[in-house]
Automatic annotation (TrEMBL):
Keywords: DNA-binding. Gene3D superfamilies: P-loop containing nucleotide triphosphate hydrolases, Winged helix-like DNA-binding domain superfamily/Winged helix DNA-binding domain. This is OmpR/PhoB-type domain-containing protein. InterPro entries: OmpR/PhoB-type_DNA-bd, P-loop_NTPase, Sig_transdc_resp-reg_C-effctor, WH-like_DNA-bd_sf.
Length: 420
């Protein structure tokens, strides 16, 4: 089996949509749960085969922007990364020395002006949900660039479900203008593509899963994340030859539990509430299946039309999930610890120092200098904006494992961070 060819065949309808977006200078938003296979779709879009078959070798600059594990970027960091990737894709020698709103807009505008009559540029954003904390000016820049490029600029966003009910007004305007809130939901793999994914995992892990293939295909239900998790677990537990044994191992595996939490945490609150209710009684789905939030569950592949849940792996974690709205989720400070739902948050020393500073001034901006003082009290020479940003990223990731929206911590351009 040619693994890449199978993935290409499977994603062909979605590649056709991506190609049409590029050729017409529009916007396409692909939505899928964590680890549904967005990265593999991106690989196909960036492949030479995609250019040859769909773009007919047209002059298209594909700028790939991966925001995987890049949540919490400041605007300057985002602009710098965006311009660096654009510089590489367009084979340019220089980018602005000073990074700000003006230089970002100017640099991209000059690139577009320099495109030939038949040239186009497309920005492909993987894990776009990680930049939803950016302010209006960023999204306004993307809107203007598209409008005044007259069809030469396109955007392809691949996002987790947070985008379905996003609160960022700048992003709302972007979505409304270009897609009118129409999303393309990514599918679960069919049996042949699931087999190709198993083959891919075999190559990555150096292990044969021949004896487990039927079980993996049957119980992964075509979800890339489940296939990957099962393969990793079977590598370490080759004696798990039946699904009961494998599921028991999965339930107790920290990485599996973390992944499941990320899937649940990415869902809009009302969809998650419905999901939990339906998990207890699938007939309840009948009253929700025509609602927007209910349809999202079906579109995301989490629930079948009859209310049956596709992925039993989610059930134990889902049953533990506390159904509280964002307003009801409170982080309380007890002495030197922070408590969420009665559970102590296991912050690292640096994470605790930063969160403590933000918590004391909740609703107000905490400057980079103040955060630096908290991190390196007696060692000012160690001050580093990069280190602060990395600590904030880890902090936000930690909060997400407790079902707290990581966007409660927001960057303030050129100033610091704020806990809202």
């Amino acid at each position: 089996m040619d693994i890449n060819s199978q993935f290409f065949r499977f994603f062909k309808p979605y590649l056709a949509k991506a190609a049409n977006t590029i050729q017409t200078g529009k916007v396409m938003i692909f939505v899928g749960i964590n680890a549904i296979g967005k990265s593999i779709l991106v690989e196909q879009i960036l492949s030479g085969k995609f250019r040859k078959e769909f773009l007919k070798n047209q002059k298209v600059r594909l700028v790939f922007l991966s925001f995987k594990d890049r949540s919490g970027l400041s605007k300057e960091q985002l602009y710098d990364y965006w311009l660096t990737q654009t510089q590489k894709a367009c084979q340019l020698k220089k980018k602005p020395e000073e990074i700000n709103d003006f230089s970002f807009d100017s640099y991209l505008s000059e690139i577009v002006k320099g495109l030939g009559p038949d040239e186009k540029i497309s920005f492909i954003l993987q894990d776009a949900q990680n930049i939803f904390n950016q302010d209006n000016s960023f999204f306004q820049s993307l809107i203007y660039l598209s409008i005044y490029s007259y069809g030469k600029v396109s955007y392809i966003l691949l996002s987790e479900p947070q985008i379905l009910n996003v609160k960022n007004t700048g992003l709302q305007k972007f979505i409304q203008r270009f897609t009118k809130y129409k999303f393309t939901f990514l599918p679960l793999y069919d049996a042949k593509t699931s087999l190709a994914d198993i083959k891919r995992q075999e190559l990555l892990l150096g292990v044969s899963f021949d004896r487990y293939r039927e079980m993996i295909i049957k119980y992964s239900r075509g979800l890339h994340g489940a296939i990957r998790s099962f393969c990793f677990l079977l590598k370490d537990h080759p004696d798990a030859i039946n699904i009961r044994r494998l599921m028991k191992i999965a339930y107790n595996d920290k990485l599996c539990r973390f992944w499941v939490k990320e899937v649940l945490n990415s869902l809009p609150f009302e969809s998650l509430r419905i999901f939990k209710e339906v998990s207890l009684n699938r007939t309840k789905f009948q009253k929700y299946k025509n609602s927007l939030e209910g349809r999202w569950l079906a579109d995301l592949g989490l629930v079948k039309g009859n209310g049956e849940l596709r992925f039993p792996l989610l059930l134990p974690i889902l049953s533990e999930f506390s159904l509280k709205s964002e307003k009801e989720k409170e982080i309380k400070r007890v002495k030197n610890n922070f408590i969420i739902y009665g559970e102590k948050v296991n912050f690292s020393k640096k994470e605790l120092a930063v969160f403590n500073s933000l918590y004391k001034k909740k609703g107000r901006v905490v400057s980079f200098d103040c955060l630096g003082d908290a991190l390196w009290q007696n060692e000012p020479d160690k001050f580093s904006l990069w280190a602060i940003a990395q600590t904030v990223r880890r902090l936000k990731r930690k909060l997400s494992t407790y079902f707290i929206n990581p966007q409660i911590i927001r960057s303030v351009s050129g100033e610091g961070y704020i806990l809202i």
